[in-house]
Specification:
Layout: H1 2-8, E1 12-13, E2 19-20, H2 24-131
Antiparallel strand pairs: 1-2
Keywords: Cell projection, Coiled coil
Coiled coil: 79-110
Subcellular location: Cell projection, Cilium
């Protein structure tokens, strides 16, 4: 009866017969909730650490991917530059070939002309020798 009278005013006895303001069941549930909250907070901290390391890893991979991307862009630009240089060199060589062909044609015409002159001079010499 004394417990009922104390319980009506909000005072309770726990299992060690100590006077408490809270009901022992509520105190036990509160302690259990506190432990569950502590475990939950510990798991959240562990999760944050895991996520932090994951974010750090992803950042490193992003930096590595960006670096490789820049290398690939540089290589592509170098390849385009080399292709343009080869094209320009090919055009120069084609122009040189055309120039050499024209020079060859001039030399061929000059050779034919000199051969005709030589033949004419040989004929003149032969005629001159026969006339004497």
């Amino acid at each position: 009866m004394a417990q009922a009278a104390l319980g009506s005013v909000g005072l309770h006895f726990d299992e060690l017969n100590k006077l408490r303001v809270l009901d022992p069941d509520v105190a036990q549930q509160t302690a259990q909730l506190r432990e569950e909250c502590k475990a939950f907070v510990d798991k959240i901290v562990e999760f944050q650490k895991t996520v932090g390391s994951l974010i750090e890893l992803v950042d490193q991979l992003a930096k590595a991917a960006e670096s490789e991307k820049m290398k690939a862009i540089g290589a592509r630009n170098l390849l385009k530059s080399i292709a343009k240089q080869r094209e320009a060199q090919e055009q120069q060589l084609q122009a040189l070939i055309a120039e050499k062909k024209m020079q060859l044609e001039r030399y061929r015409i000059e050779y034919e002309t000199l051969c005709k002159i030589e033949a004419d001079q040989n004929e003149f010499i032969d005629q001159f020798i026969f006339q004497k």
